[in-house]
Amino acid sequence: MTTHAHGHSHDAAEHTGVVARGLAGIIGGLVGGILFGVLMAMMGMLETVAMLVGSNSPVVGGVVHLAIAAGFGVLFAVLWTRAGLPGLLIGGAVYGAIVWVVGALLIMPVWLGEPVLEINAMTLQSLMGHVIYGIALGGTLFGLRHRGH
């Protein structure tokens, strides 16, 4: 821990910054997750997400989806620390596409015993939803970081 003559700690300030970014990531992840979740509900995809926890309920799928969205939101907010609005929107879109590959094309199929890296109409719709998620996440983070300025 580094302290200065005034007794302030850089580590404490950095910790507060990480916590604030994490909370903003939860909020941004939920905003993006809700937008994507509405699309998923319309496409009947929430039942598939529910299967990750042994259910077929769209409500359970929605809760699981939002928990995952919040978690990925925290990761983005903590890792992507400095960017203006264009950087956050573009970074969010790219991040959404990365989450799509890792989550929808790799982790989820392996978890459910299905083929990995399958590209079809459903996975392409999922890609669009993940990109929308990322853009909403980035836009929300920008708004939260610049509120009151």
Describe the structure.
This protein is mainly α and 149 residues long. Helices cover 77% and strands 0% of the residues. Helix 1 packs antiparallel against helix 3.
Labels describing this entry:
transmembrane, 77% helix, 5 helices, mainly alpha, globular, membrane, transmembrane helix, 149 residues
**What assembly state would you assign to the polypeptide chains in this entry?**
single chain
- Total discrete domains: 1
What structural category characterises the helix and strand content? mainly alpha
Number of strands: 0
Q: What is the helix content?
A: over 70%
Instruction: Report the average pLDDT across residues.
Output: 90
Q: How far apart are the termini?
A: 30 Å
Overall morphology: globular
Query: What's the alpha carbon Rg, rounded to whole Å?
Result: 17 Å
Reported for the largest beta sheet, the result is: none
Spell the H/E element sequence: HHHHH
Q: Assess the beta-strand content as a share of residues.
A: under 5%
Number of helices: 5
Indicate the low-confidence ranges by residue numbers: 1-9
Structure summary:
The chain has 149 residues and is mostly helical.
Q: Would you spell out the secondary-structure blueprint of this structure?
A:
Elements: H1 10-43, H2 46-50, H3 58-79, H4 85-112, H5 121-145
Helix pairs in contact: 1-3, 1-5, 4-5
